[in-house]
Recover the amino acids of this structure.
């Protein structure tokens, strides 16, 4: 894993150096830049060495004839297989790195090489002959890539913060992105908090010509399940799962794992134990104090992680986390590049920091299991919605019976939320289910003061396209598609990458391997979810490997008990950041609508904790942005 940055335009080496400064945490093992002065192109690289630790594998790397130059962030898991193919065709290699394999494969096949890759990546290749820049992001968006397409040039980097050092990159806030964060806690499109900066979407690549004209293409589309999937054997799933995990353990450095005691992470560690000596697999679990208010569903992970570690005979490192996180919040939000109010991010960083102290640069995680095979409460709600929809008037009756439940407990909150969703049409239910709050959509829209005529849905073209293309599928399958296209890359994978790389630790996600994604699309809905059980095929396949308690435990959140935290230690922060003075000064939100939101939280009338906390996080993120320096124009531009 590494950090990449570069530009095509009238900028100086000093700007590229400043961009790499912002990415130094991603690559503590080396740093270099390369320039094509005649074309006004420059690219830099901050290296985290994982495969081929020698200096010969440093980047930017160029082909023997000097035509192609690459800066690459990621891992190509099938690079040894690809290397053998290329060698049989006469290609001679100078290193043992996956970077050189990717470079030579691009040299031979161009953009078509993307279909050959099994891995996680974001990379840029400069063609000195044609003076074209090519950039690409991996199929599911594990690795990030941001860019700014300006009238006089093009800049790109692994993180948004690296682009803000350029004085030509405007810092105007994108109100549509703000609206998306309030609705979903993340932004479901290529937009970022800055109008001038975009995210290259997962499964997309782009060509930039000598005049900085940008052409974006989709090279991969997440497959959809057939409406008539036939039953699959759990043994076939288990065999594939073990191959994927073994493949993703490739590294020339020690590989550890996150072990939360849930089904997904426990399954990954159990599979790792079949690929290597369990004593060599150091595992890490965040320890969260049990929430005594019962307002949040946290606190049991460490108990199950200990039991699984004993069963699998792997070392377990417990990483204590507490609710005393206020001082770390501004730093976390800026490091995420998004105002994502999810403390699972900070816990991920704490785990990565502990792994680093143990000399481990690579961690395998269980991210993605819920999104392929079901696991969230919204999946259960969609399953119930579909079952009741088969019975005349059943949805409406059930909705009226349960939607009034008070939100003071986890059960009451879930029943009230289910009642709210049951009253909606299918498309409305699916979109609303992606929200972390039961605050009515009309009230959410009213929060955004600068765009009162715009709806949240208008900023979710991605959702609209997916809803239109999945109408033949079961509602749960449609919801899983929304997860894979938005929630996974824009929330889970974003904080997984950013927080791991803050500590120079690579977090891999075997459950999101393309082979498992394709397999999941062949699994019928009946093998994914029932009324009382999610991830059915995964639980059945792992029945002989995992503890009974782990196999049957209910889904728990990863992070901190936010609702209890906001009502307690963070109370002062919430009051300050939502005060009429602060809200009015920022100009993004309507003070009266924010006051209604605050009252709903204070009086516990609605489950609005996440939307209120996101509003606070947006204010903090904007303050962090204003504190970040940029280069002077005279330093950032080449001398005339």
């Amino acid at each position: 894993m590494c950090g990449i940055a570069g530009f095509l335009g009238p900028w100086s080496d000093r700007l590229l150096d400043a961009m790499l400064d912002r990415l130094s945490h991603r690559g503590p093992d080396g740093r270099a830049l390369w320039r094509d002065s005649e074309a006004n192109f420059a690219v830099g690289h901050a290296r985290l060495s994982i495969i081929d630790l020698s200096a010969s594998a440093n980047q930017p790397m160029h082909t023997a004839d000097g035509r192609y130059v690459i800066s690459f962030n990621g891992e190509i898991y099938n690079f040894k297989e690809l290397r053998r193919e290329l060698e049989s065709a006469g290609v001679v290699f100078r290193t043992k790195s996956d970077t050189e394999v990717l470079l030579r494969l691009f040299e031979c096949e161009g953009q078509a090489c993307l279909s050959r890759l099994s891995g996680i990546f974001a990379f840029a290749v400069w063609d000195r002959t044609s003076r074209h820049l090519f950039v690409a992001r991996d199929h599911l968006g594990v690795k990030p890539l941001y860019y700014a397409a300006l009238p006089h040039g093009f800049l790109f980097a692994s993180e948004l913060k690296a682009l803000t050092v350029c004085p030509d990159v405007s810092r105007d806030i994108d109100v549509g992105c703000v609206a998306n964060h309030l609705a979903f806690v993340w932004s479901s499109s290529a937009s970022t908090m800055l109008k001038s900066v975009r995210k290259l979407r997962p499964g997309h690549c782009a060509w930039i010509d000598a005049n900085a004209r940008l052409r974006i293409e989709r090279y991969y589309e997440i497959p959809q399940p057939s409406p008539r999937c036939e039953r699959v054997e759990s043994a076939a799933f288990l065999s594939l799962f073990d191959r994927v995990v073994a493949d993703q353990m490739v590294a020339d450095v020690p590989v550890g794992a996150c072990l939360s005691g849930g089904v997904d992470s426990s399954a990954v560690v159990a599979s790792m134990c079949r690929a290597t000596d369990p004593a060599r697999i150091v595992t890490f679990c965040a320890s969260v104090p049990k929430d005594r208010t019962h307002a949040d569903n946290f606190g049991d992970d460490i108990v199950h992680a200990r039991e699984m570690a004993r069963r699998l005979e792997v070392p377990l490192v417990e990483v204590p986390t507490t609710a005393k996180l206020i001082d770390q919040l501004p730093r976390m939000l800026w490091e995420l590049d998004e105002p994502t109010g999810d403390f699972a991010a900070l816990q991920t960083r704490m785990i990565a920091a502990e792994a680093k102290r143990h000399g481990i640069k690579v961690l395998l995680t269980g991210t993605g299991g819920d999104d392929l095979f079901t696991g969230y409460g919204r999946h259960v709600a969609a399953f119930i919605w579909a079952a009741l929809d088969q019975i005349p008037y059943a949805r409406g009756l059930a909705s009226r019976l349960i939607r009034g439940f008070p939100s003071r407990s986890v059960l009451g909150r879930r029943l009230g939320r289910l009642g709210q969703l049951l009253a909606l049409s299918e498309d409305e239910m699916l979109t609303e289910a992606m929200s972390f709050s039961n605050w009515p959509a009309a009230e959410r829209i009213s929060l955004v003061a600068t765009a009162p005529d715009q709806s949240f849905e208008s900023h979710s073209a991605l959702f609209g396209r997916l809803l239109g293309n999945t109408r033949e599928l079961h509602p749960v399958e449609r919801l899983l598609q929304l997860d894979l296209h938005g929630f996974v890359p824009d929330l889970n994978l974003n904080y997984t990458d950013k927080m791991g790389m803050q500590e120079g630790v690579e977090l891999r996600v075997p459950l999101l391997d393309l082979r498992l994604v394709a397999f999941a699309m062949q699994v019928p809905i009946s093998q994914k979810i029932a009324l009382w059980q999610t991830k059915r095929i995964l639980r059945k396949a792992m029945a002989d490997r995992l503890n009974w308690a782990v196999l049957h435990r209910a889904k728990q959140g990863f992070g901190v008990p936010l609702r209890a935290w906001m009502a307690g230690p963070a109370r002062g922060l919430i009051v300050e950041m939502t005060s009429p003075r602060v809200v009015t000064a920022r100009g993004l939100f309507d003070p009266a609508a924010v006051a209604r939101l605050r009252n709903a939280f204070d009086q516990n009338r609605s489950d609005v904790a996440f939307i209120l906390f996101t509003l606070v996080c947006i204010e903090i993120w904007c303050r962090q942005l204003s504190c970040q320096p940029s280069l002077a124009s005279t330093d950032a531009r080449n001398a005339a």
Q: What stands out?
A: The longest strand covers residues 68-76. The CA atoms of residues 370 and 376 lie 6 Å apart. Residues 452-459 have pLDDT under 50 and may be disordered. The radius of gyration is 24 Å.
